[in-house]
Amino acid sequence: MEVINAVKRLEAQGRHIIRLEVGEPDFPTPVPVLTAAHHSLDLDQTRYTAAMGIMELRQAVSAWYQRQYGVGVDPARIVITPGTSGAFLLAFGILLDPGDRVAISDPGYPCYPNMIRILGGEPVSIAVGPEHHYQLSPELLEPALKRGLKAALVTSPSNPTGTLIPDAAMAAVIAMMEHAGGRVISDEIYHGITYEHRARTALEFSQEAIVINGFSKFFAMTGWRLGWIIVPPSALRHVESLQQNLFISAPTLSQYAALAAFQCEATLRKQIEEFDHNRLFLVAQLRQFGFVIPVMPTGAFYVYADATQVLQKTCHADTRSFCADLLEQAGVAVTPGLDFGRHKAQCHLRFSFATTLENVQEGVARLAGFLGGSLPRQTR
Predict the structure, then answer these.
(1) Is the per-residue pLDDT at 378 higher than 60?
(2) Which CATH architecture has domain 2-28+265-370?
(3) Which of 15, 309, 319, 324 could share a disulfide with 336, CB 3.0–4.6 Å?
């Protein structure tokens, strides 16, 4: 938020900022979704829905799982939520008693620890590195599991690293947690945004996994605040009760509009192809500048880079000061690693390429100037 606030301050002064810190797609909500929203308003579909969501949308999500993964999911197990944040609060709400421990990866999404603590749980940060694709693994989980874990949270593709958990690791983590009486929560919000490997849902490995996804990233509906959670049948009554008490229901207009999102998959995949061009260009250029990217990101729209060599060259103590100077002096916004945890955070930063190729190219050119050199020659 500090970076975003600084960006807004500079933009208010008339500065043109290249925003490579934003974690949302730069392309607009698909037109059919907007049309469906207008139609819903014309019909005055503005009252509360059932707590679990409108059945048409739950059925559409179920059909999507069959198409994407070949997995059958009973629509009754799918709960439509106010964003994935709402889904996480439901998941933690039904699982956690005060003091219960949840394993999360470090680096990882910064909101996880806060949501766990709000509900009385204890986040257990587990350092992950490139040797494990920046993902949890059985050997990394084992020491924490000996002290007890209620759940382990897997994010694949990952924010901030853009990496996917290997299939064998996902299967082993799920088996390990379930054998110990715990649960795996799988954050799959970046599914659909992959480049070399298909992301696999945790439901392909176990029907006991709790899966969270939504319409913000692949479907480009961030401001519509709409997500979903898939839970085992035994948890449905608890989820319904908690949803009624916390949110009543997900936004009605967003639910009816989202019915049209599944008609737009071909168009959305073309945008992902554009992101892929951005990814390849950005990684190649950053590596030539001296940033170390040991694992090629194959999902989401982030590059997590080790800036140790660059910090030495520019005489910066850490990436927080580097990012602040880059923004003020060159007008390029990126996110310091401190936002995503503690494990080697001071020497890492995250670039987002969820924008146009022209913006990425301009950001790279400004970065070259900031580093005191010319733009590195592009490689094919």
Answers:
(1) no
(2) Alpha-Beta Complex (3.90)
(3) 319
